[in-house]
Amino acid sequence: MKYVGMQTQIWRNNRNTAILLLMYPVIILATVWVFVFLMDYFGFLCAMFPDSHVSGGATIREVCAADGRPYGAHWPVIWFCFFKTLIPTLIVVAIWFLASYCFNVQIIRHVTRARPLERRENVRVYNIVENLCIAGGIEMPQINIVEDPGLNAFASGIDIKTFTITLTMGIIEKLNDDELSAVVAHELTHIKNRDTRLMVVCIVFVGLISLLQSIFLQVIKAALYSRPRRSRSSKNNGAAGILILLLIGVVGLVVSSIAYFFSYINRLAISRKREFVADAGGAELCGDPLALASALRKISTEPGLSFVNRNDVAQLYVVHPDEEDDNGLLHGLVKKVNTIFCTHPDTPDRIQILEQF
After folding, report:
1. What does the alpha-carbon distance between residue 330 and residue 122 come to, in Å, rounded to a whole number?
2. Which one of 86, 143, 219, 351 has the lowest number of neighbouring Cβ atoms within 10 Å?
3. How far apart are CA 26 and CA 30, in angstroms?
């Protein structure tokens, strides 16, 4: 097999990641288009906006009447409504993205209950981080600690001011200097390769689609618990409105759920690729691949941080607590299928690669 250098691996990984990142706006726009298509196909657009003018000056009612049916695909209506909703959709996505992007550091710190670690509290940890930063030409990040007996660590932040390495109390106490240096080197590689910023982008997009799911679910609940008025005419109109609201919620929930599935799989692919590169970069930075392999073996038996209960944050950990197969139940094809839905590569596979360095 031809040897591939570290820089070549990083370049290939960045190229593939850029392609995967382009999938997020494609998924969001495709979601909007499919939703508009289904709304038109089932006659909702014709019923809700009959007098709206499409291209050519005709109204939606006239376009539907020209086809002789309110149901089915009316392409002028579909494309008109899609482009009409395009700008509001992009504005909402931009606002959500900026808000989540700017406040992600505070959110992660709050969720994990992390606090800054002062140098006087643990000179050993500071010396390890500083020596590796000097060796790798990396800006010194902030160091946080989580009062958790488990063994885990993660990097976060979007720029030099916010780059942070967070360590659990357990990993500091239970790993020797070589093993802890290897874990810190792994996290510093994430920072050096700007993986933390990338994963924030992934989390934001997946979170947006998850928000859409919640909104449509609330629409369904509102329709199910609504009651039409008592008079006969208003009761009939109210029942029709509730039915339309319910169907809109169901269509939106189905479409957004499909979009969430593809966006989530996309995020997992990016995350797994980055972990392999960070392992290689960490081993190169600390100069001891076997120390990182030993550290991963220890961490996988007691990853901790179970109180966080947030998968979007857990994907930042050096080992994901919920993806460890402690009982050895996943083998062969089942294991391969399971890997598709994991944010991290299989830990034994990571260890095996490190031991071959």
Report:
1. 40
2. 86
3. 6
Q: CB of 278 within 8 A of CB of 193?
A: yes
Per-residue pLDDT at 334 exceeds 90: no
Computed over every residue of the chain, the mean pLDDT equals 83
Residue 187 annotated as catalytic: yes
Rounded to whole angstroms, how far apart are CA atoms 162 and 51?
Answer: 52
For 127, the 3-state DSSP assignment is helix
- Taking the model in full, what pTM does it have? 0.75
Would the pLDDT of 331 be above 50? no
More confident residue, 277 or 142: 142
Please give the structure tokens belonging to residue 229: 């008025």
In sequence order, what E strands does the chain have?
115-116, 142-146, 153-156, 164-168
Residue-wise pLDDT for 63-86, tens only, equals 888 877 767 888 888 898 899 888
Among the listed residues 130, 179, 187, 275, the single catalytic one is 187
Which letter does DSSP use for residue 149 in this model?
A: S
Strand partners, 164: 142, 156
